[in-house]
């Protein structure tokens, strides 16, 4: 024992005093950055949260359309047909006229501003701002699309081009039908093409002008895809992941029943690493005889889970770790919102991909960045830091959870859908027509469905027209604002990297 102490003391003496001083000062600076760079009144925010709707409805103006029940009627002895009234809103509902779809009319009552990440809608549509979107442009997107969707007078028409993986298209379309019921008469006439696979499709480098407008779940800086909420907001039956509203409540109840300091003090990840280089590399960070990188990583075998009735894949039960790791899949992953909601700091392995809401996340405010080039060392540093700065780490997890509960509520998700479709429709230079597309409605989708597919449709179904006005979309970012946010993110990542290197002294 004495020999070990002498060796340890000798090792410490060998480290230059100047480097030790710099490292200690650096840790102090990092603590200040984490705790105060993104200043939030956390205690006030926590006190105001009520489930997934609390602050979202605050100060919203009542809708001029009285709340009206949405009726799902499945015939037992006749063929399913879509009613004349859009999506079976009660026939007594006073639907707005086509002229009431204009932004000016619907903004006559001031509503609170939408979350800042909504402003990226303008950036997504910027390539077509000066030219408008022609019929030829939309048709040119067909080669990338899985389906075409047309909305006319509040009714939806669908044309399938090719099969999506599992039922991504089914639940995406179901979500759009819910939007039409939630805000009857608000969605302008439009025609769009939708891709529901993982990688971005429309590369900037391939187009000088007249790029195909294509809706999609994710993109990177090299792509022009128009971002839209993914299918899992209405459920993912193939892997038994419930609609976001229900799952968000489960996650919230779980986190409230467990003190953060009592959580398992490691970084957790569970998923399918097979064939995905970054994830396979992450699995090296599991404990070994040589290292313990503070990570506990598990392979998710979905085939076995399906056979076992999903007994070991409850997302809420995975919130019992202090830290949760996010890492991309084939491109981005839908898991990010579930990880954020756990009230455990999200350790985000740096990624080039974005979806519609991740543009609102800031390092140090909502997550801790993990260097993708040396994941294990970066994870160990993050967990060590958090376990020695418990209050700061807990607050980081709280801010991420509040973002999921408030900014990413279904209220805001539907409002994002409304605004991106409205802004898109205003760019169309022609009047859309159904052509070969078939009329679809909640009856034609939900009535023939079975099992979890039917259950999740019923669970996520809008039951009434919305009683409040949508949030107000703010103007586009100017270049100074975009540059300022980019610089802040870059500086924060650089500071974290310097501190990680400091531990190797």
Automatic annotation (TrEMBL):
Keywords: Membrane, Transmembrane, Transmembrane helix. Coiled coil: none annotated. Residues 186-431 form the Glycosyl transferase CAP10 domain. InterPro entries: CAP10 (IPR006598), O-Glucosyltr/Glycosyltrsf_90 (IPR051091). The chain crosses the membrane at residues 20-38. It comes from the Eukaryota. This is Glycosyl transferase CAP10 domain-containing protein. It comes from Rhynchospora breviuscula. The lineage of its organism: Eukaryota, Viridiplantae, Streptophyta, Embryophyta, Tracheophyta.
């Amino acid at each position: 024992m004495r020999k070990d102490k002498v060796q340890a003391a000798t090792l410490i003496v060998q480290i230059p005093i100047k480097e030790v001083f710099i490292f200690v000062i650096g840790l102090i600076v990092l603590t200040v950055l984490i705790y105060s760079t993104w200043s939030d009144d956390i205690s006030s925010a926590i006190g105001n949260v009520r489930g997934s709707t609390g602050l979202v409805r605050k100060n919203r103006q009542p809708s001029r359309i009285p709340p009206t029940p949405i009726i799902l009627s499945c015939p037992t002895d006749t063929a399913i047909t879509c009613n004349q009234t859009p999506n079976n809103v009660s026939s007594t509902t006073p639907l707005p006229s086509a002229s009431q779809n204009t932004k000016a009319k619907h903004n006559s009552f001031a509503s609170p501003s939408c979350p800042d990440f909504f402003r990226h809608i303008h950036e997504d549509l910027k390539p077509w701002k000066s030219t408008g979107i022609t019929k030829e442009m939309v048709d040119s997107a067909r080669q990338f699309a899985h389906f075409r969707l047309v909305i006319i007078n509040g009714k939806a028409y669908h044309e399938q081009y090719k099969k999506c993986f599992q039922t991504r298209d089914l639940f995406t379309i179901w979500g759009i039908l819910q939007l039409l019921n939630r805000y009857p008469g608000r969605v302008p006439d439009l025609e769009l093409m939708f891709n529901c696979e993982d990688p971005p499709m429309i590369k900037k480098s391939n187009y000088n002008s007249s790029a195909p407008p294509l809706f999609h779940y994710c993109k990177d800086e090299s792509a022009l895809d128009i971002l839209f909420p993914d299918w899992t907001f209405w459920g993912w039956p193939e892997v038994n992941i419930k609609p976001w509203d229900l799952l968000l409540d489960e996650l919230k109840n779980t986190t409230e029943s467990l003190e953060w300091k009592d959580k398992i003090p490691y970084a957790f990840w569970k998923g399918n690493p097979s064939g995905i280089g970054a994830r396979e590399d992450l699995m090296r960070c599991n404990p070994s005889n040589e290292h313990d990188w503070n990570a506990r990583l598990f392979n998710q075998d979905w085939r076995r889970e399906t056979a076992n009735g999903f007994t070991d894949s409850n997302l809420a039960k995975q919130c019992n770790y202090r830290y949760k790791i996010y890492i991309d899949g084939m491109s981005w992953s839908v898991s990010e919102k579930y990880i954020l909601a756990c009230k455990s700091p999200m350790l985000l392995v740096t990624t080039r991909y974005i979806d519609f809401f991740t543009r609102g996340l800031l390092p140090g405010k909502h997550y801790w960045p993990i260097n993708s080039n040396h994941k294990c060392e970066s994870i160990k540093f993050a967990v060590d830091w958090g376990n020695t700065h418990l209050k700061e780490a807990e607050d980081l997890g709280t801010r991420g959870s509040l973002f999921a509960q408030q900014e990413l509520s279904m209220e805001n998700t539907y409002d994002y859908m409304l605004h991106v479709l409205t802004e898109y429709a205003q760019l169309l230079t022609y009047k859309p027509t159904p052509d070969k597309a078939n009329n679809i409605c909640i009856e034609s989708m939900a009535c023939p469905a079975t099992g979890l597919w039917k259950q999740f449709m019923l669970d996520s179904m809008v039951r009434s027209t919305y009683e409040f006005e949508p949030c107000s979309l703010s103007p586009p970012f100017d270049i100074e604002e975009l540059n300022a946010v980019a610089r802040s993110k870059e500086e924060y990542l650089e500071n974290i990297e310097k501190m990680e290197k400091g531990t190797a002294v």
